[in-house]
Each structure stands twice: as structure tokens, then as C-alpha cells.
Design goal:
alpha+beta; Leucine-rich Repeat Variant; Beta Polymerase, domain 2; 6 domains; nine-stranded mixed sheet; two-stranded antiparallel sheet; 15 strands; 6% strand; globular; disordered N terminus
Length: 1115
């Protein structure tokens, strides 16, 4: 670049950054970004623009908007330009690696990362987005980019020739192609749609037939796009054989020691792309073979010897990739084996080619190698088995990747379903022996289930097969009949089911970046719902004055305490149910209604706790309908007793809460106050889903269906009024509540939280309140990014705030434990939302928000630390809080224990700690200095979290704001020993005047912040906080100083000092307050004297300033 360009680069790049952070129109932002991306002479602007696009982290709508405004085409040009520069720099010693070329290459990498993001969630994006990507010729452009780099003949040549940036470009490009190939359009684009007829080989065993097919192939002149062939050649030739890198070995060792489920694609990818940039071509092969054209490409024989001297199919060339590490300590790329195993599994969907796969390609050994372990086999087991499966002894290790093992087992299962002769081939190869030993140590239930299905095929008696089946045809017609196409066309139904089931799961396993879609409601986990009976416990009703025993899970009957109002309510409910059953209610048809009390009331009564709300669940009646009848019944009973006025007190108005599935409220509910009790009426429900919608349709259900749709097993209990018994339809609720003390969901936890994401917070509140633990399945679902996203976007902030309020207050609340669970489960980012733009809060850190909003108040190093460790830092602060509260002897109600202080009654009525906000102030400490720009005003991020994130009352928002603003002042006080000097009194008094009722809470939070800042949990800091509290309350008598009336009001000041009405009165009022803080025993005369002196000094300063300005103007 020229010097002029360099001099203006900083200002221009700042303009790019401002474009994405200001509140200007979105269309204008897209237009500006497009302009910067298309700057022909400014590599720095293109680089900053690609960073901005990448940082936007667009969702589906943003992706469509960016593509509509031409950003995609501009990114492709940037990619091509950077790829060309990177390719030209390889081996060109005369080419200088200046800053401009580095920026061009980096911009290309940023653009590739953007496309990788867009395509990584392609299954959740519309076909329109995929079509746009393909219309822009993304596939051929990326292929051309990859092929522009030198073709290496070995992996060692890759390491010596390709630069780090070149490897990144190749790796990202192939990753994008792999994502696009998950769709049919993308797969066909890569493979090509015109293929020769000889692509698939039928079940022919005779060698002359095989030679005939290969001769036909060599004579075929039909050509296809060379895309896959050229990429395949590089993929095969650059296979890593040995990698001499100590860091990689250590990282691989760590991953190998970790549980298989904990190893993610990103971890493997980050480790391997410097050594294997072509690794994602394996995923392309797996994805593209989901379509028939892809399988035909892989299984075909090349058309000429020139293209493949070995004369074998693509599949046969790729089988060596399945070889496991030579020893346990060796390192090989699991990405390749995962992709190739998935490709083989997909090829096994071609049933007519099963014999060719087994006998010509000999895929049995490659499939069994990832499943074979170090077990010592019996001599009989080794006979017929490939020696590669057992000769290495202890060095033989099963593949660490679950997906690879699953692909191999599914491929074997597909082969088992292709006929008896092929099953015999598998038996001869001792497939059962390998599967048996693998199943004994298999950790994955899905893999183990597939192994058991294979074993059932391989061990069953083949005699007596049904007449007319494919196996019977083989018996009668001989081997020639078995290997013909006609034989495979008579495949039994059970064999088709295997293929259909595995084909259904292909989309879930074909790409590691796809999140499984749980939009369809799962079936109940019972084989015959009509035969399910609940666990029941008879109920003995006891009065409030009677001694009640503690209920245990082993008890045959439970004791429940009912007060007079509850007895009256339940009696009226049963009367209404009987009248409905007898057809005695005018305007309503005769029907039997089972009335059950559901949910929290049952749970708390079993535990012996008081509860005030009752939820009524009805089987054959809607909540609104039953509530209307109930109201009529209560009012009619009151009239019969000549007590019309009392009827209004006994039964209130009916309120209807409409269903709102978009906000996770799936059920219409009628609410009414009866006999002083808040009662909710709703029908038992079951939820069904339309094929094209994620919004459930709620229909009337059974008690079993209703129980399984509730949030937690302990809340799925019912008290049946007619049978006077507790019903546990999930058969786990009572045990979880009374015995194992575990919070778990009736159905799969992910689906339960997907239905209503607020349940993740309810789980925490219940676990803390009832001293229970969270189940492993529930904890994993809580940490799922999709649940974080839905909690942030799908649930109203009022509901989130209400749930959080339940964790902070109440008799059994434990805010410290609750806040720790919120942070440890990575939910804090979805609870305490940050300001717009509303980007996805995934996990515990606020990285996306902090990069997209112009926050102020921290330097760059602190911001980087905050992005990485915000909520982890909050957890550490929460650990310190109990020490400070204990040191100050804070009681549960927020007051401080005064036994150690000699104080009078006036001092005893002092400001308490806000027991709710003190916990929020500590957990939000990492954000206390962050600010953001809103409508050209600087605002505090903590204020936004309180007001808009959790929707707390305005009183709480103002209190938290004053606490946040007073933190630094209190921390300065804590750095020195308290004294009663006028200066200390003034500083402390000003602090109290600014924080008012929150000053004690601020003292606690500031002490925690100071201890965390010093990385020192010492008693001396707690003692210092206690000393300052004692000094302010007792020695300085400053508590409630903000509410004390001034000695001179505004009118007095005007008369005394001759002031005019206006701002000047406020100046002297403030000076009066400051003087009184420094002179608590000063008289009125002394105050007047001070104010007059202050007035003289102020007038002198104003005259001096006026004379100075006059002189400057004269000059």
C-alpha cells in the first residue's frame, strides 16, 4: 500500500467497525459492508469487512438478507483472491510476504469461516438459502480454489510445501463442501448427475461375469465432472501415516483418555487440520453417498486404466483408510475413519451389490477392525477370521469414535438383511465373535442395541424359513438363484425395516455439526398405555392440630394434612363431579368426571409443607367448563343458606389464561378463588405435532399422558379425590421425591426443556429448595446450546424473572447454591440477557454480545478476560459472599446481629442488607463497569440486565443501579482503616447519600469485590468491612443521614443570602449538607457563617473568571 493509504487505514477500518455497531438501518449496514468488501485497492478494508460479517453471527433471516444484498458473491470473490495469493506464495521465493498479501489471505480465511457458519446449520435453514449458495457456483469455486494449490504426492510433502494459511483455506473449503453435501442438491452438485450405467455391480460370483462388467466399464466413454475424482486423488495420497508432533500426541492422549461422548468435532478438527487439511473429504464421501448417484460413483470401476492403474473401484481404494492405529500410542485421524465408515454404511443400502461388497471388495475386515479389541481369542474363534483382527494382541484397540463404531455395526446389520448366503459369509468370517467381545465393553447404548440386532440375525436357526422367502428360494434354486437380482427383489418385510430405520438415522450421523431435531413429540415410554396402572398410596387425612408422621417411600399409606378451607373445597369438588355424573346440572350433558389434584400441592403435602395454590386436573371436562359449574354450585349453596353476600367472598370471578404455545404455554386454564384458596382448573392434556410445525396442538388426554408431559417426576403426582389416594403414573415420582431425592423428567430431558425452556430454571429451584440433586440426563440437557437459545428467545423475560425471584426469596431458598448451578450449567447467559442486538446467548459467556455492542468501561485486555471468564468469575465471587455475610453477622431477614455492639435503641433501627439483591449484585460483579450506548446515552449493562433481562421492579432496578455506581467509592474506603476525621466523615456520608438504603448491601458487595480483586480470602478484609460498618453506624452516626432534614430550607437560604430562585439554591443546599457531614455538632450560627464565607469565595471566583475572559476577548 502507499503511505497515504496506510495513514488513513485506521480511520477507515474504524468506519467498518462502526458500521456494525451503530443503530443505523440494517439495509444500510448490508450496503456498507458490500461496499467495503468490494474495495479493489484496499486490502485492509476488505479484511475489516470480513471480520464484521463474521462477527455478526447471523441467523437464518440475517443470512438471507446478507445474500440478498450480494454479500455472498463478494465473499466468494474475496475467497478466490486470497486463495490465489496463498497458492502463488507457495514455492515462490521471489515473492515477498508483505502485509498487504497477508491481509488478503486472512480476509479469505474470514470469508470462508463465514460460509462455514452459514452452512453448518443448513438443515435448519430453508431450501432457499441452499439454492442461493448453489446458484452462486459456490461448489465449483471452492473446488477450483482447492485444486489451485499444488498437488502433493504424500502427507510429508503436504507438511513441507503447504503453509499454515494454505492448510486453513483447504480445510475450511472442504468443510463447507461437506456441509453442503448434506443436502441432495449439494451432493449431486459435487458428484455430477450423468453417470454410466455400469456404476453398480449386481450379485455375481463368477469371475468371468466380474471381468465382463469391468470390460464394459473400460469401453464406456461417458465422462462425468472430474470434481470428486480429482479431490479423491489428493485425499488418498495425503493420508497421514506417522505424525511426529509431541503436542499433538499429548492432546490426542488427553482425548483418548476422556470419555468418548465428550470428544467433539471441533477438538479433533483443531488438532488435525495442520497435519491433514484434506480430512473433511471423508465427510463429503459419507454425505454424498446418501444419494444414489453418490453410491454409484463410489462403487463404480473407472472407465480407463489411465485414470486408475489398479483397476479397482473408488470404494476399494478407500478401504485402507479404515486401518486402525498400529498401536495404542500411535496417532491417526479419526475424522477419516468416521467418514469412510459412514460411506461404507451407505453403500450397503444397495442390497443388489451386497455379494460384490462382501466377496470382491472384502469389506468385512475393514468393518470389523474398528470393533476389534485386545481380547485373547480361542483357537476355534480364530479359524476363518482375518489375522489382522487378532494378530496384534494387546495393541489392538477399538476405535475411540462412537460414530465410527456405529457406522460399522449398521453396515453389518444391513448386510445381514440381504439374504441367507450373505449372512453365512459373515458367519464364516467370525463376525459374531468380534461383535460379542465388542458388546461386552461398549459404552454407547445405541451401538450396543445395533450389535444385538446383528447377533439375532447371525445366531438364529436358518432352517425352516417361510415358503416363498428369499432364503427358501436360495435353498430350492441353488447359489445361482441367490446371486440374481430376482432373489433380492423378494426381500422380506423385516429386512426392509432394517434398511428404512438406518436410512432414517443417516441424516443424524452424516454430519457432526447438525443438531438432532426434536420437534416431534416422542411416544410414551410404555409398550401398552392402556394396561399401565399407577403406583398408588392410600391417603389418611389429618387435621392441622393433629400430630402428623413423616411420609416414607416404603409406607403403604400417606398422611396428608388438610385445613378447613381445603376440606370444604374438596367436598364441593366431589359434589359437582357427582352432580355431573348423575346429569343433575342444567345445560350440561351427563358425564363422569375424575377430579384430581395435580402438581405442586400434592408434592408439598407429601413432604409436610404448607401450600396455598391448588391445581385441578380433569379428564373429560375443560377447565373453563368445570370452573363455571363450580361457581354456580357455590353460589347456589350460599343462596340456599340465605347468605348472598357471603357467596361473593366464597367464590371469586373466573379468569381464563389462554393457551400460547409460542411462549411455551400449551394449555388453557381457568383460575378462581374459592374458600380463600387460589384454584386453577385445566383438563388432562396430550400434545401432538403437525409434520410442518414445531408448535404443539393440545388435546384432551389421559392421566398417563398428562403425567408424562409434566416437567418433573415429583410434579407428576396426583391426588384422586374419588379414590382418596396418591397416583404415581410414571412410577418414579414417589421414589424420586422421597427416596433417591433426584430431580428428573418423565420423558427425555431435552424434549421436556424444548417444550418449555423455563423448566431448566424450575429444576434448579426445586433441587435447591428440596435438597435434591439433578439427574445426569437433565444436567446434559441443561447445557445444550439449543436450550440456551430457546430460554433466551422463546420464554418471556417476566417468567424468567419470576422464577429467579423464587430462588432468591422464600423460607427454603438458597440463592448461593442456585446461582452457582445457573453458572455451572451455562445458563447465566440466557437468564441475565445483555443489550441488543439480540444475538444468540449460547453457554455461560457473553462473548457474542460483547463483540456486537459498543460497550464502554473496560480496556481491551479486561474485555477479553470478561468474554472468556465472566460467569466463572461470578462463581468465584459467590464463594466469597458467605464469608462476608458471616463476618457481618447478617441474619436471614437482612438485619445485623448487634450483640457485640453497645448501641442504644435508636441505633438498633438501622439499615439492613437487602437479602435478595445482595446475591444478584455479587453474581453480576464482572459486569458492573460495562456500559453500552442506547439512544445516544451511556447506560450501565447491569441496569439493562435487571430491567430488561429479568424484568425486576423499577424499585429494584434503581436500587441495583445505585449499588453499582457506589461500588468504587466503597472499595476506596475499604482500603484504609476507618476514623472519625472530617474528611472520612464527608467521604462516608457522600457514599451513604448516593446509595441510601443500599449502602449496607453495597458494603457487602464491595468487600467481596475487593477480596476477589486482591485474590485474597483473608479474615482481615471481613474485619475491615465490620469496622467500617461499626464506625458509620455508631461512631459517625451516619446511618439514614440521607433522610435528615436540612437546618436551612430553600426559602431560608434565599432570604439569608439574598439569592435568586434557580440552580444557585441547589448549590448552597449541597454545601450545607457537606458541611453538616463534616461538622455533626455544628450549630446553626456556625452553618450560617460558613455559608456566607462560601458565598464570598464563590463570588470572588466568578469575578476572577469574568475578568480573565474579558482580557482574552480584548486581546
Amino acid at each position: 500500500m502507499t503511505d497515504t493509504t496506510s495513514a488513513t487505514a485506521a480511520n477507515d477500518t474504524d468506519t467498518v467497525t462502526a458500521t456494525t455497531t451503530t443503530n443505523q438501518d440494517q439495509v444500510s449496514i448490508y450496503r456498507d459492508l458490500l461496499t467495503f468488501l468490494q474495495s479493489p485497492q484496499r486490502a485492509d478494508l476488505r479484511l475489516e469487512a470480513t471480520k464484521a460479517v463474521l462477527q455478526c453471527s447471523p441467523d437464518r433471516d440475517q443470512s438471507l438478507a446478507l445474500i440478498d444484498h450480494g454479500v455472498l458473491k463478494a465473499l466468494l470473490k474475496v475467497i478466490s483472491m486470497g486463495g490465489g495469493v496463498a497458492a502463488n506464495r507457495i514455492g515462490n521465493t521471489s515473492h515477498k510476504s508483505d502485509n498487504t498479501h497477508s491481509m488478503i489471505v486472512q480476509a479469505s480465511i474470514n470469508a470462508l469461516q463465514t460460509l462455514l457458519f452459514w452452512t453448518s446449520s443448513v438443515q435448519e435453514m430453508t431450501n432457499m438459502v441452499v439454492d442461493r449458495l448453489l446458484e452462486c457456483q459456490t461448489v465449483p469455486r471452492l473446488v477450483e480454489l482447492i485444486l489451485g494449490f499444488p498437488a502433493c504426492s504424500s502427507n510429508s510433502e503436504v507438511q513441507s510445501v503447504l503453509s499454515k494459511e494454505s492448510k486453513q483455506i483447504i480445510n475450511f473449503s472442504l468443510g463447507i463442501l461437506a456441509n453442503l453435501s448434506r443436502t441432495e442438491q449439494g451432493a449431486l452438485e459435487l458428484v455430477g448427475t450423468t453417470l454410466p450405467e455400469e456404476a453398480v455391480y449386481n450379485n455375481r460370483k463368477e469371475s468371468d461375469n466380474a471381468e465382463h462388467s469391468q470390460n464394459d466399464a473400460s469401453m464406456d466413454t461417458t465422462r462425468i465432472k472430474p470434481t470428486m475424482e480429482l479431490l479423491l486423488d489428493r485425499f488418498v495420497k495425503t493420508t497421514p501415516t506417522s505424525v511426529a508432533d509431541e503436542e499433538l500426541k499429548e492432546a490426542m492422549a488427553t482425548l483418548l483418555e476422556a470419555p468418548a461422548s465428550s470428544t467433539s468435532q471441533n477438538e479433533w478438527d483443531t488438532l488435525w487440520y495442520p497435519f491433514d487439511p484434506y480430512q473433511h473429504f471423508a465427510a463429503i464421501l459419507m454425505n454424498s453417498t446418501q444419494v444414489k448417484a453418490g453410491r454409484q460413483f463410489v462403487m463404480r470401476i473407472p472407465r480407463s486404466a489411465a485414470s486408475n492403474a489398479e483397476g479397482v473401484s473408488v470404494l476399494q481404494r478407500l478401504l485402507p483408510q479404515m486401518a486402525p492405529p498400529a498401536s495404542f500410542k500411535a496417532i491417526t485421524n479419526p475424522f477419516r475413519r468416521r467418514g469412510i465408515s459412514g460411506m461404507i454404511r451407505n453403500c450397503c443400502l444397495e442390497k443388489e451389490s451386497a455379494w460384490w461388497l462382501l466377496n470382491i471388495c472384502k469389506i468385512i475386515t475393514p468393518l470389523l477392525l474398528p470393533l476389534a479389541g485386545p481380547e485373547e481369542l480361542e483357537l476355534e474363534d480364530k479359524r476363518g477370521m482375518d489375522p489382522d483382527l487378532w494378530m496384534r494382541g494387546p495393541d489392538q484397540q477399538r476405535d475411540i469414535d462412537i460414530s465410527t463404531r456405529l457406522h460399522c455395526v449398521e453396515a453389518i446389520l444391513l448386510l445381514c438383511a440381504t439374504g441367507r448366503a450373505n449372512r453365512n459369509t459373515l458367519r464364516t468370517a467370525k463376525t459374531y465373535v468380534i461383535l460379542k467381545h465388542c458388546d461386552m465393553v461398549e459404552e454407547s447404548e445405541e451401538v450396543s442395541d445395533r450389535i444385538n440386532e446383528c447377533v439375532q440375525y447371525l445366531r438364529r436357526d436358518e432352517e425352516g424359513t417361510a415358503e416363498g422367502s428369499s432364503d427358501q428360494l436360495a435353498e430350492n434354486g441353488g447359489l445361482e438363484r441367490e446371486k440374481s437380482l430376482d432373489a433380492s427383489s423378494s426381500t422380506r418385510i423385516e429386512e426392509l425395516d432394517v434398511e428404512d430405520e438406518i436410512m432414517q438415522s443417516t441424516s443424524d450421523t452424516s454430519s457432526s455439526s447438525v443438531i438432532r431435531d426434536y420437534s416431534m413429540a416422542p411416544a410414551l415410554p410404555v409398550s401398552d398405555p392402556d394396561k399401565v396402572r399407577p403406583i398408588q398410596r392410600k391417603v389418611k387425612i389429618v387435621g392441622t392440630q393433629q400430630q402428623r408422621k413423616r411420609n416414607n417411600f416404603q409406607d403403604r399409606a400417606f398422611e396428608i394434612e388438610l385445613d378447613d378451607e381445603e376440606r370444604q373445597l374438596f367436598s364441593a369438588l366431589q359434589e359437582v363431579a357427582r352432580e355431573l355424573e348423575d346429569g343433575l346440572i342444567e345445560g350440561y350433558s351427563k358425564k363422569k368426571v375424575q377430579v384430581r389434584v395435580a402438581g405442586g400441592w400434592v408434592r408439598d403435602k407429601i413432604l409436610g409443607l404448607q401450600t396455598h395454590d391448588v391445581d385441578i386436573a380433569l379428564d373429560t371436562c375443560t377447565g373453563v367448563e368445570f370452573a363455571t359449574i363450580m361457581k354456580q354450585h357455590v353460589e347456589s349453596s350460599a343462596k340456599q343458606q340465605n347468605n348472598d353476600a357471603q357467596s361473593k367472598k366464597l367464590c371469586g370471578k373466573i379468569g381464563v389464561i389462554a393457551a400460547n404455545p409460542a411462549q411455551s404455554k400449551h394449555l388453557e386454564t381457568a383460575t378462581m378463588r374459592i374458600f380463600g384458596i387460589e384454584v386453577d382448573f385445566s383438563n388432562l392434556r396430550h400434545e401432538t405435532y403437525a409434520e410442518d410445525s414445531r408448535i404443539p396442538e393440545t388435546v384432551t388426554g389421559t392421566a398417563l399422558e398428562d403425567a408424562y408431559r409434566r416437567d418433573f417426576t415429583m410434579n407428576s403426582l396426583y391426588y384422586n379425590l374419588s379414590t382418596q389416594s396418591i397416583e404415581d403414573w410414571t412410577r418414579r415420582g414417589l421414589q424420586d421425591l422421597l427416596d433417591t431425592k433426584v430431580v428428573q423428567t418423565p420423558l427425555e430431558a431435552y424434549q421436556t426443556f424444548h417444550d418449555d425452556p423455563l423448566r431448566v430454571l424450575r429444576a434448579i429451584r426445586f433441587a435447591v429448595r428440596y435438597h435434591m440433586r439433578l439427574s445426569e440426563d437433565l444436567m446434559q440437557a441443561c447445557q445444550h446450546p439449543q436450550i440456551h437459545n430457546e430460554l433466551h428467545r422463546k420464554v418471556s423475560r417476566e417468567r424468567v424473572g419470576k422464577e429467579l425471584e423464587g430462588m432468591l426469596s422464600g423460607k427454603h431458598a438458597n440463592p448461593i447454591k442456585a446461582m452457582d448451578l445457573i453458572c455451572s450449567l451455562k445458563l447465566a447467559g440466557g437468564v441475565f440477557c445483555l443489550p441488543d442486538p439480540e444475538v444468540n446467548v449460547l453457554g455461560s459467556i457473553a462473548q457474542d454480545h460483547l463483540e456486537d455492542v459498543p460497550y464502554r468501561g473496560e480496556d481491551e485486555q479486561q474485555l477479553a478476560h470478561l468474554r472468556e471468564h465472566a460467569w466463572e468469575e461470578a462463581r468465584e465471587c459467590m464463594k466469597i459472599l458467605p464469608l462476608v455475610l458471616n463476618a457481618l453477622k447478617v441474619q436471614p431477614d437482612g438485619s445485623l446481629n448487634l450483640e457485640s455492639m453497645e448501641v442504644d435503641e435508636a441505633v438498633a433501627n438501622m439499615t439492613p442488607v437487602d437479602t435478595r439483591l445482595v446475591y444478584l449484585s455479587v453474581i453480576l460483579l464482572p459486569y458492573r463497569r460495562l456500559q453500552y450506548i442506547f439512544k445516544n446515552k451511556t447506560k450501565n449493562v447491569v441496569e439493562y440486565m435487571m430491567r430488561d433481562g429479568i424484568k425486576f421492579k423499577n424499585k429494584d432496578v434503581l436500587a441495583m443501579t445505585s449499588l453499582t455506581e457506589g461500588m468504587d467509592e466503597m472499595m476506596q474506603l475499604l482500603q484504609r482503616t476507618p476514623d472519625t476525621s472530617p474528611t472520612s466523615r464527608l467521604q462516608a456520608g457522600l457514599f451513604l447519600r448516593s446509595t441510601k438504603d443500599m449502602w449496607v448491601t453495597t458494603l457487602v458487595a464491595a468487600t467481596v469485590a475487593q477480596m476477589r480483586k486482591r485474590q485474597s480470602i483473608q479474615v482481615s478484609w471481613c474485619r475491615r468491612a465490620k469496622d467500617w460498618y461499626d464506625a458509620i453506624v455508631k461512631d459517625m452516626d451516619l446511618d439514614n443521614c440521607w433522610s435528615r432534614k436540612p437546618l436551612l430550607n430553600g426559602k431560608d437560604l434565599i432570604q439569608l443570602l439574598g439569592l435568586e430562585k434557580g440552580p444557585a439554591v441547589g448549590v448552597y443546599t449541597e454545601e450545607q449538607s457537606r458541611w453538616r457531614l463534616m461538622n455533626p455538632k455544628g450549630s446553626l450560627d456556625e452553618l450560617i457563617c460558613h455559608l456566607k464565607d462560601f458565598q464570598k469565595a464563590r463570588e470572588f471566583e466568578e469575578n476572577q473568571a469574568a475578568q480573565h475572559i474579558s482580557k482574552k476577548m480584548h486581546l
